[in-house]
Amino acid sequence: MKGKILVTGGTGYIGSHTVVELQNSGYEVVIVDNLSNSRADVVDNIEQITGVRPAFEQVDCLDYAALEEVFRKHEGICAIIHFAASKAVGESVQKPLLYYRNNLVSLINLLELMPNYAVKGIVFSSSCTVYGQPDVLPVTEDAPIKKAESPYGNTKQINEEIIQDTVKSGSPIRAILLRYFNPIGAHPSGLIGELPNGVPMNLIPFLTQTAIGIREKLSVFGDDYHTPDGSCIRDYINVVDLAKAHVHAIARMLEDKQDEKVEVFNIGTGRGLSVLELIHAFESATGVKLNYQITGRRAGDIEQVWANPEKANKVLGWKAETSIEDTLRSAWNWQLKLRERGIQ
Ligand code: UD1
């Protein structure tokens, strides 16, 4: 065993894929999740994929005492990957205090507990949302942080600052901040994937639900942007590739290879795709026709953003590998599997 890793939000979308990759690489995993946006049977599915059942504690990271009990019970946790957070941009505008409480207090609790239990470092789930609309594309890690468009985005910025300030104050911990672009797709087994609550807000779950007939039509939010085909451009990153970036980050941290106590990496492919290009790629990769229509712009959308992932490629030794076609097929396979299981 390489070490014991605490994964908060480990039954969630990115968390579950990361637990699989950690276990496949020989790490022992303890999952903490309050199941507010995931299901307990994800643990069974992780076991089915990897042959190893991760420890699971149904605990809310806001509950300091319960969280401390996890560190006591699972002695020897050497690092944390912190996914647990609320992530719906629109909801965060309606319920800012919920977002500030959930996303800030959870991190503060972890940072307070870490030195007491000799936890070496934390890998934090950040987002390209911190760049807003970048002036230069592809965007690099040293691009300026722009004022957040939503309370959700603001929690990512503030959390990055909380980590920076904590380390600066002399806390004996290390941190790696991973700024994800747009994670999509599912594990090739079809056993884990994204399980949106209610009507999906993100493009791919809405798209696959439309393709399978749960939704009538996909709306393309705007075709009058300053992009080649007028629709918004994003950097869509395969979720298994993204999960592997965390394994690289953990290894770098535990092997004392960090150049700075807090390091930041863009986790993207380096390739921007428009909404319309993505729809057409889905149709040709799966052979399924999509019913879609162009509608008005969605408030708060960034026009275009994609990563310069060179730093992650060179320093972290990680690179996105899966083609967009395979990624879209995995998302479709997951939607079909959900229907088989009678979930959606
Ligand atoms: C947003 C956040 C990101 C967050 C992610 C997960 C911003 C700038 N980005 O990403 O930080 O991690 O949500 O919640 O706040 N689209 C359609 N039709 C749809 C849905 C989406 O055309 O039905 C378009 C959007 O306009 C956008 C693209 O698809 O151009 C991707 O949208 P989405 O999947 O919601 O992700 P982001 O908004 O990029």
Can you describe what's shown?
- This protein is an alpha/beta fold and 344 residues long.
- The protein folds into two domains: 4-183 and 236-267, 3-Layer(aba) Sandwich (Rossmann fold); 203-234 and 270-340, UDP-galactose 4-epimerase, domain 1 (Alpha-Beta Complex).
- It contains eleven helices and 13 strands.
- The strands form four sheets. The chain has a seven-stranded parallel beta sheet with strand order 3-2-1-4-5-6-11, with helices on both faces.
- Residues 87, 89, 127, 129, 149-150, 153, 182, 201-203, 206, 218-221, 232, 234, 275, 298, 301-302 line the site of uridine-diphosphate-N-acetylglucosamine.
Residue share in β-strands: 15-25%
Number of helices: 11
SSE order, one letter for each helix or strand: EHEHEHEHHEHEEHEEEHEEHEHH
Bound molecules: uridine-diphosphate-N-acetylglucosamine
Rg, alpha carbons = 19 Å
CATH architecture descriptor name of the largest domain: 3-Layer(aba) Sandwich
Shape: globular
Number of strands: 13
The low-confidence parts are none
Strand order of the largest sheet: 3-2-1-4-5-6-11
Structural class, please?
A: alpha/beta
Distance between the termini: 37 Å
Question: What would CATH call the homologous superfamily of the largest domain?
Answer: NAD(P)-binding Rossmann-like Domain
**Count of discrete domains:** 2
The biggest beta sheet reads: 7 strands, parallel
What is the average per-residue confidence, as pLDDT, rounded to a whole number? 97
The helix content is 25-40%
CATH topology of the largest domain: Rossmann fold
| CATH top level assignment of the largest domain | Alpha Beta
